[in-house]
Amino acid sequence: MPHQSRNLRYRKLLAASCLGALGLGLLASPAGAAPAKHPYPGSGTLEVVPEVLGPIEATGDSYPWSSLSHARVPADVSELGYVEEEFFLRGEANVYGNPEGELQVVTENVPYTNHLLVRRPAKKADSSGVVLVDILNASNGFPGEDHLRRMWDWAVEEGHTIIGVTSKPIQVDALKNFDPERYAPLSWDTADAEREPIIADRDDPSSFDPFMVVPGAEEGLAWDIITQVGTLLESRQGRALLGGQQAKTVLLMGQSQSGLYLNTYASNFHEPVTEANRGPVFDGYLNTVGAVLERPLAQPQAGGLATVPGSEPALDVPFITVTSEGDAGLFGAATLAEKELTENRRHWQVPGTPHTDLLSPVVPADAEIYRSGRLPNTAVHDEAFRSTLNTFPLEPAVVAATESLINWSKRNREAAPSQWFEQSAGQLVRGADGNAAGGLRYGLLEHPLGQFHGAAHPGAVYGSMELISAEEFAQSYGTRSAYLELVGKVDTKLIEQGYLTEWGQRYFAEVANDLLDRIGVPAGTK
Fold first, then answer.
1. Which stretch of DSSP H or E encloses residue 441?
2. Residue 296, preceding bond cis, omega within 30 degrees?
3. Which of 50, 107, 440, 477 sits 20 to 30 Å CA-CA off 402?
4. How many degrees, rounded to 5, is the angle at CA 116 between CA 220 and CA 44?
5. Rounded-to-integer distance, Cα 141 and Cα 373, Å
6. Residue 398 CB contacts under 8 Å (≥ 6 apart), including other chains
């Protein structure tokens, strides 16, 4: 279904003098425009389009959190023809509950100021019109850009825009630690509250709980904030946010904990928001490694990753869930069991893949994470540890699913059918080669170079692998060129079926060549 434009009235944005010192500008809107209000789920009305503050000035001393210029491997986005800009959103959000499955407003009109990070083509002519809105992951206690690191290269090739939305109070705390002056306006508080910054103890890492409840704040503001980001992108302010580019297709994405947020939003808010806005705010949904679980609508009283069973209702837009093998240990294999799905849903389960990629260069440098009061994974700098990590990539499936959602929503071209792990007695079945059976099988698994484990140990978010020897390779496959041809034939067929893109096939070829180098297969046999 194509993304629909709505006749909205836009808020008049008033400059605040106290923000000038921080370099906060306000995007212009029509003079004298009244706040746009729509009926929202439950009761009452809310302003559909929030105030947009920014882009917020970046200097040598004050720059956006997670700026790619301060990544583990620094990148200059301007060299790629891209712009990286930060904005704040200021509006009001309700807090909801759903007793007995009926959506209700618990608290009305809570003021908030939230954080957006936008990466878009610098030139309007280079824009695809596709906007990927990513619910930033809070599982490390800071705003984590998990989808960015899994699809950045592909998104740049295609001219897509990626917008990261801070989704939880624990992330706001990290931002305020990172730069107290820059992020002073941010608030998810339900009342005036003074609290000490939350700082993880470097000497006692286990004492930090990234799932803790932040006193005086409310996690349940997330749902209206997400909706308002979608309606913002349909407005004139949204075009200004995108440098004059038009959002033609808007997808909402979430990974891991944020995948639970995505499930929750789609199950509880897609239908009533669509009805209130006379059309869908988001053209499709992508859940990466978030299983089918959901979370409570309002902030739980205790900490921990509170979950409720997922319902997966029928939607009028497409929804694809991409699942790694490692998710079976994190969420339980039973949550991944094959089921009947409505026509607009797909599940692609990919054996051999870990929940996350610890080696991605597109993550904040360690010094940046320490500055946010959180702890980086320093093990990735240890060569012995790095050598054991499973490098079987989930990224090609994530990118293929995203492209399928774009084609489905724009051209009504349905995604390829669901693919499920083979299970028995609540456990994944393994074949004679030691790899998980069933699911979406890329060439690297159909012709395995060893055993690829989705989790290095129970509960691990990273995987491990055991490669075959050079002698075993020669006996099974002969030469490097013969092996790459076998893998290529499988992957070419998967491209035709819609489970892989040409970008993904190149990615797999790079991984295969790296593994062949590790095994010791002579490069001259390519």
1. none
2. no
3. 50
4. 40
5. 9
6. 147, 150, 151, 286, 288, 322
pLDDT in tens, 101-144: 888 899 988 999 999 999 999 999 999 999 999 999 999 999 99
| Position 235, amino acid | S
How many Cβ atoms from other residues are within 10 Å of residue 60's Cβ?
5
Other C-beta atoms closer than 10 Å to the C-beta of 36 total 18
Instruction: Report CA torsion sign: 235, 143, 162, 441.
Output: negative
Ordered alpha helix ranges (H), 288-437: 327-331, 366-371, 383-388, 395-411
Three-state DSSP class for residue 324: strand
CA distance 363 to 85: 17
State pLDDT tens for residues 46-88.
667 789 999 999 999 999 999 999 999 999 999 999 999 999 9
The structure tokens listed for 107 are 């608290």
Structure token pair of residue 347: 């599940």
Picking from 325, 249, 259, the residue whose alpha carbon sits closest to that of residue 287 is 259
Q: Which portions of the chain are predicted below pLDDT 70?
A: 1-47, 525-526
**Beta bridge partner(s), residue 86:** 117
DSSP states of 157-224: HHT-EEEEE--SHHHHHHHHHH-TTTTTT-B-BSS----------TT-GGG--TTPPPTTB-GGGHHH
3-state secondary structure labels for all residues of 10-38: CCCCCCCHHHHHHCCCECCCCCCCCCCEE
Tokens of 499: 């489970």
CA distances from 339 to 290, 317, 346, 419, 480 (A): 16, 19, 11, 11, 40
* Backbone torsions φ then ψ of 511, nearest 5 degrees: -65, -45
Taking the C-alpha atoms of residue 150 and residue 258, their distance in angstroms, rounded to an integer, is 15
